Amino acid sequence: MTISFNDPVKQEVWATVRALNDAWTQGDPDDLVNYFHPNMVAITATDRLRRDGAAECLAGWKGFAEATQIHHWEEIDPVIHIYGDAAVVAYYFDMSFTMGGQTINMGGRDMFFFAREKGRWWAVADQFSAYPA
C-alpha cells in the first residue's frame, strides 16, 4: 500500500523513512549511513543498553538483516509531526522473516525522531518494539 501525505514536508520525511526501511529490509543495510545521523541514539527491543552513535545503530540493523531473511515489511497508519527542522514519525509495522530456520510473523511499533540538516532529514533517535504479548 502506498502512503502519501498532502503536506510536502511530511511527504519528504515519509520518503526518507521509506528509503531508510527499504535499505535494511530489501536493499543494502550499509546504505543506512545515508539516513542515520552521526549522533543517532536508539532503544531497541533486543538490546539491554542503548545504541549510541550511527556506527552502533548501523551494526544493529545490519546484524539483524544479515541474520535473517526478510520476507515482508510494511508500515501501517503513520503519523508525522513537524516542529520546524525536526520531525517525529510513529507507525505500526508488520513483518515476516526467517531466523535460525524458523519463520516469524511479527507486528510492532516504531517511533523515529528526525532533524533536518543541510537540506536532508536524518534519523537522530529511534525506539521500536514488538507489540506486547
What would the average pLDDT be, to the nearest integer?
95
User: Quaternary state, please?
Assistant: single chain
Largest sheet strand order: 2-1-6-5-4-3
Rg, alpha carbons: 14 Å
Supply the helix-strand structural class. Answer: alpha+beta
Q: Report the order of strands and helices.
A: HEEHEEEE
Helix content: 10-25%
Largest sheet: 6 strands, mixed
Per DSSP, what share of the residues sits in E-state strands of 2 or more residues?
Answer: over 45%
Comma- or semicolon-separated keywords:
2 helices; 133 residues; alpha+beta
Layout of strands and helices, then pairs:
Layout: H1 8-25, E1 36-43, E2 51-52, H2 54-67, E3 69-83, E4 86-99, E5 102-117, E6 120-130
Parallel strand pairs: 1-6
Antiparallel strand pairs: 1-2, 3-4, 4-5, 5-6
Report on the architecture of this protein.
With 133 residues, the protein is α+β, with helices and mostly antiparallel strands. Helices cover 24% and strands 50% of the residues. The protein has 2 helices and 6 strands; from the N terminus they run αββαββββ. The protein has helices spanning 8-25, 54-67; strands spanning 36-43, 51-52, 69-83, 86-99, 102-117, 120-130. It has a 6-stranded mixed β-sheet with strand order 2-1-6-5-4-3. The longest helix has 18 residues, at 8-25. The chain is globular.
